[in-house]
Amino acid sequence: xxxxxxxxxxxxxxxxxxxxxxxxxxxxxxxxxxxxxxxxxxxxxxxxxxxxxxxxxxxxxxxxxxxxxxxxxxxxxxxxxxxxxxxxxxxxxxxxxxxxxxxxxxxxxx
Length: 110
Hints:
Distance between the termini: 37 Å
Radius of gyration: 13 Å
Oligomer: single chain
Order of helices and strands: EEEEEEEEEEE
């Protein structure tokens, strides 16, 4: 299984960005997908998890700004981020079971 997050980049505060996580293999549709982020010199933190059935749990800090979704036909999970803040600057990663993808860097400038 391989996971690859993409779609990060530099944005201005207040803007939106959607990042994707594409998985290889045939287990995607039956697996939960987690989104995490790791800011410089900080611990990795959970953003949210979407189950194979589409149920979603968000971390408290999300507060309605982020939305997780998935497209099983495309083996892809998405993280829609709105009203971005400089403190959202981090490497964003996805996970599926014990597998982790290489992250994508999101840089939010004020």
